[in-house]
Amino acid sequence: MAYSPLLQDLLEALRCLPGVGPRTAQRMAFRLLEQERDGGRRLIAAMQKALDEIAECGQCRMLSETELCWICSAPRRDASTVCVVESPADVIAVEDSASYNGHYFVLMGRLSPLDGVGPEELGLHLLEARMDSGDVQELIIATSATVEGEATAGYLASLAHQRNIQPTRIAHGVPLGGELEFVDSSTLSLAISGRLSLRED
Amino acid sequence: MANPTRVELEPAWVLHTRQYRETSMMLEVFTPGSGRIGLVARGARRPKSPLRALLRPFEPLVISWSGRGDLATLQKAERTGPGVTLRDAGLAAGFYANELLIRLLERRDPHPLLFAHYSALLEELARPERIESGLRNFEIALLRELGFGLNLGYSAQDHAPLDEDQNYEYQLERGVVPVAMEIGGLVFKGSVLLAIDAGNWTELETRRAAKRLLRYTLDYYLEGRELKTRKVYTAMLSSRPSSD
Ligand SMILES: [Zn+2]
Questions:
Q1: pLDDT, tens digit, for every residue of B153-194?
Q2: Do residues A120 and A108 both lie within one domain?
Q3: Does the distance separating the beta carbons of B86 and A147 come in below 8 Å?
Q4: What CATH number is attached to the domain comprising B129?
Q5: In B191-222, which positions are buried (b, 16+ CB within 10 angstroms) versus exposed (e)?
Q6: Same structural domain for residues B132 and B204?
Q7: What is the gyration radius of the CA atoms in chain A, in angstroms?
Q8: CB-based contact (8 Å) between B149 and chain A?
Q9: Same domain, B190 and B113
Q10: What is the reported pTM?
Q11: Closest Cα of chain B to A77: distance in Å?
């Protein structure tokens, strides 16, 4: 390869980012070195600070630089409802939907028996402690529509039932603007089994 | 180097999936004609890929693939029926069966009979009261298909049919031999062994004995490799309310 050793190191380091292959890494590195040296320094500083200071929220496991994240410590949010998701990105997705005002619990994964990921690996004792505190009335299960997500949902539901907490599962169905004939049959069958009755208002 | 292969429209069950690169998936698949195979499904994790909904465990598929060596490339996959919906203990048992196949089957050993047994098992796992007996039948079929049959119907000593009231000791890779008295270990009554051999699971004593005997035998052929699903399964079941 025609790169100097330092450049080679930089290219390899950049490739730890998702979506960055050799060509993208090269474009990024040249941009930084040719035109964005100040921007690059800001990037390093921000990255350094974030890596040093961001950990998991002590209550919900969301990424946070404070002991309690901004969601858990927001005074106007409903702490009696906890929505369980698989990743921090899922929290952001639900937040962006602007349809939810409760708390979260982030699993940082899902039960995957064949990969040896069980309840312990998902930090579920934290969630159990939360449910044992008596503040939680509803557990909204928003795990992925995979068999592992299904296994996780079943397990979480049993934890909730044991404590007389209502478990609910987010609905799976037809995407907005989607026409039925293009929806795959598994999704459609979930949509039909989870149908809602239409009430007169 | 192995010859390039191309297989068209083979029935298949996905046993396990893993992420592969940015947008692809690595699959462990079980088929009747090619046994357990590893496949790469290119682009299967792209948001709009129709394969996302298909390439899941417990979906009945027909697939086409091509390639050489250990890892071939999936060309096409279609669902052949509505599939089974597994929940809770049934789902955990399904993961366990998948792990057994992944650990115990050599790649590319054809197993048409075992494929039929596995398909039948999944139907059983959808019915909570059939999970345990379904698993035992499957474990017994799996050992037999691997050439490690339990040989419970007759004495390994003299090939005489079992006496219902006699005690027998189960010995690995041999079968059962009569023993004078119940000395612990893997000693069972003839009537219990005959019930296991016949797949008659009505008696609790038979089910308990079969579970013990099969666990011991499977552990032996697993050669010390711990089953990950067993650990998670136990943790999952221990949290379940007893009323449920
Ligand atoms: Zn939090």
A1: 899 988 999 999 999 999 998 999 999 876 667 999 999 999
A2: yes
A3: yes
A4: 1.20.1440.120
A5: ebbbbbbeeebeeeebbebbeebbeebbeebe
A6: yes
A7: 22
A8: no
A9: yes
A10: 0.87
A11: 30
Report how far ligand 1's centroid is from the alpha carbon of A106 (Å): 9
The DSSP-derived string for B76-111 is EEEE-S------HHHHHHHHHHHHHHHHHSPBT---
- What stretches in chain A show pLDDT beneath 50? none
Nearest chain A alpha carbon to B57: A147
- Are A103 and A179 contained in the same domain? no
The structural domain count of chain B equals: 2
Do A176 and A125 sit in the same domain of this protein? no
Question: Which residue reads 């060596």 in tokens?
Answer: B69
Number of domains comprising chain A: 2
Q: Which of A15, A20, A110, A114 best tests the B interface by mutation, with the highest count of B CBs <10 A?
A: A114
Residue B216 lies in a domain: yes
Map residue A198 onto helix, strand or coil.
coil
**Do residue B53 and residue A184 have CB atoms under 8 angstroms apart?**
yes
Contact B227/A at CB under 8 A:
no
Could you tell me the CATH number of the domain that includes residue A84?
3.40.1360.10
Domain that holds residue B41: 5-79
Which domain covers residue A110, as residue numbers? 78-169
What is the bridge-based pairing of β-strands A55-56 and A63-64?
A: antiparallel
Do A177 and A115 lie in one domain? The reply is no
Tell me which residue in B56, B94, B231 faces A146 most closely, judged by beta carbons: B56
- List CB contacts (< 8 A) between A186 and chain B: 53, 59, 79, 83
Considering the domain architecture, whether residues A143 and A200 belong to the same structural domain is answered as: no
- Asked if residue B107 and residue B63 are part of one domain, the reply reads no
Task: Check whether residue B69 and residue B135 sit in a common domain.
Answer: no
Contact B228 A114 (CB under 8 A): yes
> A147, B57: Cβ pair inside 8 Å?
yes
Q: pLDDT tens-digit profile of A18-74?
A: 889 999 999 999 999 999 999 999 999 999 999 999 999 999 999 999 999 999 999
A90 and A137 housed in the same domain? yes
* Interchain CB contacts (distance < 8 Å): A and B: 75
- Distance of CA B48 to CAs A147, B15, B52, B224, Å? 19, 23, 8, 42
Q: Is residue A101 less than 8 Å (CB to CB) from chain B?
A: no
Chain centroid to Cα B80, Å, comes to 21
